[in-house]
Amino acid sequence: MPNSNVLIVTDESEFARLLTACWQAERQAPGITVLGSDLWSEHEEIEHELVVVGPLRESKLSEVLKSLAPATAVILCAPAEPRELSQLRSRCPRLVHIPLREDWTQTLLLVAGESLRRSEALRAVRQAEKKASRNEHHATLGRYMIDMKHSVNNALTSMLGNAELLLLEPGQLSQQSLAQIKTIHSMALRINEIMQRFSSLATEMREAENASQAETADAFLSRPHRR
Amino acid sequence: MLYKRDTRLEHTAKLAADVHPYAAENCSETLVVQKKILIVDDSPSQVRLMQGLLETEGYQPVGLNDPRRIEEIITAEGPSVILLDVVMPERNGFQVCRELKSNTKFNAIPVILVTSKDTPSDRYWGEQQGADGYVTKPFTREELLRAVRRFA
Fold first, then answer.
1. CATH top class, domain A5-125
2. What is the pLDDT of residues B84-97, one digit of tens each?
3. CATH-assigned architecture of domain B34-149
4. Which residue of chain A is at minimal alpha-carbon distance from B47?
5. Rg of the Cα atoms in chain A
6. Which of A154, A160, A203 faces B140 most closely, judged by CB atoms?
7. Minimal Cα distance from A157: which residue of B?
8. Which of B120, B115, B135 shows the shortest CA–CA distance to A203?
């Protein structure tokens, strides 16, 4: 999870120090930002996949949670009454409470790991959806081009073939008609060459697209996956 | 629609023997032999064009716009070669080719696909259906005749 960002909001420096140390001992640590409640701002611009809320000064807990977007994943590691917890959960549906008991750091790291993996999976899904939408547009364009190419090739076949048929008996044509038919024939051949170039461009683009997809797949497969 | 033209060209006894081996015995110098080529394409202008090109070489082309009638026309006309378009409504050329090649009554007749589908995968797929030749549109007169001459 090296691309993930975790925000720790606490007024207890020992809590932040211990949690950061435990995370940094892991093989893949996320980016960690620590803030005290005094520095907490509603207009925080850094995007965080997870917010860990530790012990705070009195009345600050509600204020911090109120300012978070409802979809934010939150792990609360501070004492809270069941009634208060229920109210907080209705405001933040993705809130998980981990009491500060023995081994709370291990529990928190496990829950945080799952939460970050979920965020990463959601991000990958969103990217895939965007890409699928783009590909759909390209596919529509491609289908249209194939239809057009078919029609153009059929028209060219008639132009070339009929011109060749007329040129087989040049004696029946006036010099002017002969020259005009020869022009039609050579122009049809030129259009055919242009169409061939379009075809090779399409092949090159397809090869580039395949290479790019293979590269993306390799990059995805080579990423470390923790379990 | 079925297109037939009454063009008659004189060929040698050797050519007659290619069509029916026993015909050579009865062949006189004025024997008229025309190899029939069945052209199946949903576009009437394409059929007329191929007919015109084949007639210049002495073949007897038979045109057909409706691929659903191909078995009936083959039985009636007995063509030496079939020129078959691929993109057609109702029954596409790949499908027609596959069905002809799996029918012992018709599978000896060479089938040449004449199509604007020109990618390697199209050609490969055509081969897989049992096609004996492949001509891409637009073609020149010589390209079409070269493909036909291989078989007739």
1. alpha beta
2. 999 999 899 999 99
3. 3-Layer(aba) Sandwich (3.40)
4. A158
5. 33
6. A160
7. B138
8. B120
pTM equals 0.61
Query: A169 or B145: whose pLDDT is higher?
Result: B145
| Distance (Å, whole) CA B103 – CA B98 | 9
Domain boundaries, chain A: 5-125, 127-221
Question: How far, in whole angstroms, is CA B19 from its chain's centroid?
Answer: 14
pLDDT, tens digit (0-9, with 9 covering 90-100), for B30-72? 455 679 999 999 999 999 999 999 999 999 999 999 999 999 9
Domain ranges of chain B: 34-149
H-run or E-run covering B45 = helix B44-55
Q: How far apart are the first and last CA of chain A?
A: 12
Instruction: Provide the sign of the torsion angle of the four alpha carbons B69, B114, B11, A168, taken in this order.
Output: positive
| H or E, element range at B3 | strand B2-4
CB contact under 8 A, B49 and A157: yes
- Hey, of B114, B136, B140, B145, which one would you mutate to test binding to chain A, going by the most A CBs within 10 A of its CB? B140
